[in-house]
Amino acid sequence: MRIVIAEDEPLLREGLALLLRAEGLEVAATTEDPSSFLAAVEKHEPDVAIVDVRMPPTHTDEGIVAAVEARRRRPELSVLVLSAYVEQAFATDLLAGGAARLGYLLKERVGRVEEFLEALHRVADGGTAIDPEVVGQLLTCTRPDSGLERLSTRERDVLAAMAEGLGNAAIAERMFVTEGAVHKHIRSIFAKLDLAPSDRADRRVTAVLRYLESEQRR
After folding, report:
1. What pLDDT, in 10s, does the model give residues 124-181?
2. The pTM is what?
3. Architecture of the structural domain at 2-138
């Protein structure tokens, strides 16, 4: 597994590199700003990028913007985002592009080495690793009743595929149905989850988050 790290705090950046190398993983580059991160991704073609949310020069959303851009340039890139606290809008921006090969963890998880490494490997293998606290805070404005129990088996299968980051065409191919049938299932999912039609991307993200939360509770 080849990894590029983007973190502007020197101690955390070098600590991560030491930890990963001690685990036998290849750290191709450590970077401290978005431009050098994107250059490293282009040069080293990593399997996974570990990215801090807030980076120079303004320490607002540079890390998230860089992560989204890196995934745009290299759709197969797995990204594990680290944040000091939950950034609701930024997490939604990432998830809007699909949940596959994506992790969003609070930095405090790094100290729990086994949990951190498990999340890293899950993301590298094409899965999703969303910090339970991130999921919880992103769902604070939703109803206590998630609505998932109202979904049919086929609708839940569609939602699970959405949580993997599959688009409608890929879901249709996997389930041996037409894209039109997938569209109908998704409309039904949104209706049963009481998700308003004002923003299609946000509805998809919210549906995926509810599914992830239910899976974490099992």
Report:
1. 988 888 776 766 565 554 445 567 888 999 998 999 888 877 788 989 998 999 999 9
2. 0.67
3. 3-Layer(aba) Sandwich (3.40)
CA atoms in the 13 A half-sphere facing the CB of 99: 24
Please tell me the distance from the alpha carbon of residue 126 to that of residue 205, in angstroms, as a whole number: 18
Side-chain half-sphere CA neighbours of 209 within 13 A:
28
Sign of CA dihedral 59, 65, 68, 74: negative
Contact 74, 38 (CB under 8 A): no
What is the third-level CATH fold of 148-217? Arc Repressor Mutant, subunit A (1.10.10)
